[in-house]
Amino acid sequence: MEKVRVHRFRLKSPKREKNSSSSINPSNLLRRNRKKGKMELSSVFAHPFPTAHFSYSPITSSLSRSPPLPTTTPKSVNNSPSTSSAAASTIHSEPFKSRPRNVYYRSQRPISISHNARQSAILDMQNSEDLDSALSRSGGILRAQDLNIILRHYGNLNRWQELSQLFEWMQDNDRINSSSYSSYIKFMGKGCNPAKALEVFNGIKDEAMKNNVSIWNSVLGCLVRGGKFESSIRLFYQMKQDGLIPDVFTYSTLLAGCAKVKNGYSKAIELVQEMKSSGLQMDSVIYGTLIAVCASSNECDEAENYFYQMKDEGYSPNLYHYSSLLNAYSVDGNFKKADMLVQDMKSAGLVPNKVILTTLLKVYVRGGLFEKSRELLTELEALGYAEDEVRLIPYS
User: Fold this and answer.
1) Cα separations (Å) of 117 from 122, 162, 169, 174, 387?
2) Which residues are the signal sequence here (predicted)?
């Protein structure tokens, strides 16, 4: 058998033209090489060299060989422009199945079964009439933050027995955090039980948890609500001695206590100055509480100054601010300023509530406007607010 020597040759990368196709026809390359003494490969094989399309890939090494030739005659290929590029990428491999580009798959984060179970357990305990059975049934899967939701639910509904029962269970089962103590102590103050609040506070063994400003604020609020303002001031000093830094809520709580004691205005001014010196800014809550303190201390001019100072700083007054300043006008029956204030409130889009109307009635009575007082009383009766206000108007 005659041996045929086949010379190896190296293909150079053709210069790419702007409108040239990205595929190379090997038969054309072979015909060019034939002029240089190369042997046409079609004479080696028993059949003519088939036409095939290959995707162009730059040759990165001088030792790269030409691509392998097919050994069988392929089926006829449609050489139309629409199909040639597809054939070039699929001659040696199966078609690559990719998802359509215009279809987007949004990954959804699955909701854990434990989350759904905890939500069901929370509803079960909130609606259960037997807390013991509900705790034995659902308490094991609940976390501290879940139990805090139930704790606040009981407190808002004034269900003091369930509130204390749940809190004790949380302590016994170590399902408790600083928010638990803060909420429970606050509700103890609402339930007029400051002694229980102090007992719980003093019983906190974890020093890191006890040194939480929100817990101290709850104790201060409990003492203020219970009429123990002096005790709240002593606790405030102890708080600072222990290294805790009071926040705006701390000062607003103490300012609310100043409105309930004699000579509270001077103490309020002292607290405001201390707050400003510590870098804290006045907000709408502080302003509202301070206006109420001024009104309770018969400091009408100061109340008015703080009201308009608040507006100048960009805070919008609410019904509490208006009612506090209106109460300051009721001290000396200044009905002219009171009417102007109510008109300003209506212009701001606020609707007078029971507190506003009853305070305005007090302004009219102390200002000697008995006819306007009776007209306003008629309006209060139509709204169902006048049951406790008839005694304000003297009989003539």
Assistant:
1) 9, 22, 20, 20, 49
2) none
